[in-house]
Write a structure and sequence with these properties.
- The protein is mostly helical.
- The chain has one domain.
- Helix content is about 65%, strand content about 0%.
- The chain is built from three helices and no strands.
- It has helices at about 5-15, 20, 30-35.
- The mean pLDDT is about 70.
Length: about 35
């Protein structure tokens, strides 16, 4: 694998994560990593 599991995990989140619809749903540190 060329990616670490953490990176794969956040890539999965990005696929369904919609900031316009879910702002404030996740902890701030997680939102910062996604943006």
């Amino acid at each position: 694998m060329d990616k670490c599991p953490i990176e794969e995990f956040y890539n999965q989140i990005r696929q369904w994560y919609n900031p316009a619809k879910h702002t404030g749903m996740l902890p701030a540190p997680v939102e910062k990593m996604l943006n």
